[in-house]
Amino acid sequence: MLLSKTTTDRPHVSHNFTLSDFDYSLPPELIAQHPLAIRSASRLLDARDAQVHDRVFEELPRLLQPGDLLVFNDTRVINARLPAMKLSGGAVEVMVERLLSPTRAIVQLRASHAPKPGSEIVIAPETHRAFATIESRDDRFFSIALKTGAPDFEALMRDAGELPLPPYMQRHAEQADETRYQTVYAKHAGAVAAPTAGLHFDDATLNACREREINFAFVTLHVGAGTFLPVKTENIAEHRMHKERYSLPQLTVDAINQTKARGGRVVAVGTTSVRTLEGSYQACGELRAHESETEIFITPGFDFKVVDLMITNFHLPKSTLMMLVSAFAGYEHIMSIYKHAVEQRYRFFSYGDAMLLQRRV
User: Fold this and answer.
1) CATH match of 81-162 with 2.40.10
2) Residues spanned by CATH 3.40.1780.10 within the chain?
3) From 55's CA, which of 140, 151, 256, 343 has a CA 20 to 30 Å away?
4) Are 109 and 132 in contact (CB under 8 A)?
5) pLDDT 10s digits, 63-76
6) Which CATH architecture group holds 19-77+177-358?
7) Beta strands of 102-250 (E only): which ranges?
8) Per-residue pLDDT reduced to its tens digit, 184-197
9) What predicted TM-score, i.e. pTM, was given to this entire model?
10) Alpha carbon distance 119, 133 (integer Å)
């Protein structure tokens, strides 16, 4: 049966939950600072049912069924962190959020005192001295434009940029991160954070999935730096999501419809794949190939239309992603999963372990 609907769904934000409901206690030593030597050696918490099982990620293929469809996000992380300085000499760090054109970008700026609109900064001062004007500001995001004669942003990131590891790693990127903070199937450059559920897949695991007749499809969602911004309001209905660009190809739409028609399941690899599929369905009233932006906010009570299972890492307390997985698998179930993961010393966040969830019916 093709995925379509006759009425338009609206974003649902449950008013029965507050931000504090999505908090949990996490010992700092459980935050993974480096990847494991082997991608698929990560632990996998099989939490499809109330009875959870501690497994290893390389077991994933036998936990799925022939005919299931894995949907991956094939975005590639760019070297979005750039050194800069004010004309007065004060240090500035530029985090590119997205490119508006070769010479204009939306960025975050880290400085002791944020530059004001109309002022100038110098990007890559020791190598390129590219002058840029601060055009405008929207909360934590700035629009900046390179001045005539400066290298474009792609050149600056290629020559002077650094891979932007998440703030909770508390270190700069190392040589190993150049490959390990990318999925093995990364293709389309544009993300400033990795779709981390995909980091566990290696060639051996992908081949084992193929041998089990599990099918693959791809979407592209360029993860923005806003994914790490905290929720500031206790009333989660007041939170505004950041926009992220995505592309849903016709091949993927066809694969999903064919999978559903023959009784297979759609298995989203990561919350970014979930947001792409469900956000696209919500925007179009059906699953339709297109490119757009999504700011979908998924909280308990959301009516999932596409995704049946989800592979995901463990998320920050009080984050929108905690709300998303709670909506998908059930709030009480998720909180018990996180309690178990802490007790069993799972590794958390981007370089941490994974879990397998089933949509609550």
Assistant:
1) yes
2) 19-77+177-358
3) 256
4) no
5) 999 999 999 999 99
6) 3-Layer(aba) Sandwich (3.40)
7) 104-110, 120-123, 130-138, 141-146, 188-191, 215-221, 244-248
8) 999 999 999 999 99
9) 0.92
10) 6
